[in-house]
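Page 37, top half.
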Amino acid sequence: MKASAFLTLFAGLLLVSCYNPQHVVSDEMKPLSSKGWHWNDVQTIQTRLDDTSIEYNMVLKLRITGGYRYANLYLLFHVKDPDGKTQTRQYNFNLQDKTGRWYGKGSGELMTFEIPVNAVLRAAKPGVYQIGIQQNMRDELLGHVTDIGLRIEKGKVVY
């Protein structure tokens, strides 16, 4: 019994020591209404980007219930820079493989996804950036999406 407790503690310490929180600029999840995610309900995340010499990677964070009826999720990302200029781009996130198996992790009715966004974020100038996330599915009110969020990480240096 003592050996298994020691191995569990050692594995936990190893995982914590491998995690580098210095590369994470922001990490935020927002709960959505239990009634559903309305198409015009934009979830906004603010982050300060000060280093203009690097690219920032974005990772979509998503929680859905087992009642979610699609294999994918279309989202609009609205990125507003410190000068107020906004750029909008649509992304399609696949949530299942062709056999219907979820890519996310979970137990019971709740599935959690962390999906890299296939685009980098560049800070043209230091300051606060606002990233709005809006569902862009066929449904006016998209059900079974419980939380949406974004993690922004420091990426590679750009010359």
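Page 37, bottom half:
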Amino acid sequence: MRIAISTEGTSVSPHFGRCPSFTILDLEDGKIVKKEVVANPGHEPSFIPRFLHELGVECIIAGGAGRRAINLFQEFGIQAILGVAGSVDEVIEKLKDGSLEGGESLCKPGLGKGHSEREEECNHHS
């Protein structure tokens, strides 16, 4: 399975689309057979889900993502595991042993500069 983790330094980024990079893993039988870091090509509506789909990603892991992105991931058949925090290495260990659990998206409407409660996208980075 090919997995993309939103990455900010050595940690899982709180917002998938605005992370500086993605750690992309190929996981087979609980083992990492390939690991690479890919720069985020830019945050534009619908671009990143399509970009990752073209790279063969089947699952994304992040602190959160906007509703529109989540819907696009679903359209591309990409599973989204959200509500994840901590170091990328810790997440990889949990993936390998099958103990990674997601939760509620850390992205909430109204978070960030210039957003109201009615908006559907958050903006963690001003």
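Margin note: The first helix runs from residue 47 to 54.
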